[in-house]
């Protein structure tokens, strides 16, 4: 990814893609003092941009550092980068980290850096394909107790177990992994939240030790508009035997049906179909409204 072309917003300036580098003694690299966001561009507009910028600022606060830009400035910088790279359907990756001025666990006065990269990433909307569903392995890694790690932060360090889980799942033929939490409850996939359905009602784990995703909240709102009830509650893995449909939600995953999780299987059906269509309409709504 480092040898692409384009412009990356780096501490206030647009720099050529291949010059957007950090020093090897960067605190964020050694001690994971780093937070990031993942956003999608649909028809040239970033979906729920301000919510993402707010989460970025909050993620940094939870790691005890302050990004030297306001939410409004971050919004503007994201838009500027999308525009400078002429991205129509793509992905935005803001990342903030402690720099390389001091080396050691304590780095109180290191510079806080912010960079924003964007790239073309069309969202292929092929419902038939999606409705086949993906397969998840149940990971041996568990989401930590909020007393063990700042679990509300989209912090780079929390992704260490996600990469371990996803690599293991992929090497054993699955597309992703389901992670339980430290209590053994169903938590989320490695980069997306999870929902189940039964008798026309949606069930999703209470987000008390993992991200309450922006897509998750959108899905809850969309389900509400259709009159589908959503119950947020603790879900134990054995309960998966009784659920009918299952899907993941996330900025990158959008609404992705699941057909298998370890020994449990699901049948992607009407609810998945409706939410895929509603989500697609929602992310493109403002654009078409603006064009009309
Ligand atoms: N959980 C994890 C671990 C994630 O990385 C993501 C993606 N940001 C999500 C959940 C879903 O969050 P969102 O819908 O805000 O993208």
From TrEMBL:
Q: Which residues cross the membrane?
A: none
Among PROSITE patterns, the record links this protein to: AA_TRANSFER_CLASS_4
- Keywords on record: Amino-acid biosynthesis, Aminotransferase, Branched-chain amino acid biosynthesis, Pyridoxal phosphate, Transferase
Per its record, the protein catalyses: L-leucine + 2-oxoglutarate = 4-methyl-2-oxopentanoate + L-glutamate; L-isoleucine + 2-oxoglutarate = (S)-3-methyl-2-oxopentanoate + L-glutamate; L-valine + 2-oxoglutarate = 3-methyl-2-oxobutanoate + L-glutamate
Coiled-coil spans in chain: none
Required cofactor(s): pyridoxal 5'-phosphate
Q: Might you give the EC number(s) for this enzyme?
A: 2.6.1.42
Question: Briefly, what is this protein's role?
Answer: Acts on leucine, isoleucine and valine.
What name has this protein been given in UniProt? Answer: Branched-chain-amino-acid aminotransferase
Q: Which gene encodes it?
A: ilvE
């Amino acid at each position: 990814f480092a040898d692409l072309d384009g412009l990356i917003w780096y501490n206030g300036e647009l720099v050529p893609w291949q010059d957007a580098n950090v020093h090897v003694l960067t605190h964020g690299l050694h001690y994971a003092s780093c937070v990031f966001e993942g956003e999608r561009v649909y028809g040239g507009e970033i979906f729920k941009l301000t919510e993402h910028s707010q989460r970025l600022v909050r993620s940094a606060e939870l790691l005890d550092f302050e990004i030297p830009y306001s939410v409004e400035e971050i919004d503007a910088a994201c838009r500027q980068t999308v525009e400078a790279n002429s991205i129509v359907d793509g992905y935005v990756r803001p990342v903030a980290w402690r720099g390389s001025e001091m080396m050691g666990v304590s780095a109180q006065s290191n510079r806080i850096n912010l960079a924003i990269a964007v790239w073309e990433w069309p969202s292929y909307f092929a419902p038939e394909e999606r409705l086949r569903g993906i397969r998840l392995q149940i990971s041996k890694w568990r989401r930590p107790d909020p007393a063990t790690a700042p679990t509300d932060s989209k912090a780079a360090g929390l992704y260490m177990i996600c990469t371990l889980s996803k690599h293991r799942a992929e090497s054993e033929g699955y597309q992703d992994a389901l992670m339980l939490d430290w209590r053994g409850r169903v938590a989320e996939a490695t980069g997306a939240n999870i929902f189940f359905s039964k008798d026309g009602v949606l069930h999703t784990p209470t987000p008390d030790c993992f991200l309450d995703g922006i897509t998750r909240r959108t899905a809850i709102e969309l389900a509400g508009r259709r009159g589908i009830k959503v119950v947020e509650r603790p879900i134990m893995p054995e309960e998966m035997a009784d659920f009918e449909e299952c899907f993941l939600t996330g900025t990158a995953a959008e609404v992705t049906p699941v057909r298998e999780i370890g020994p449990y299987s699901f049948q992607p059906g009407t609810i998945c179909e409706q939410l895929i269509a509603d989500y697609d309409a929602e992310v493109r709504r403002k654009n078409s409204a603006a064009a009309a």
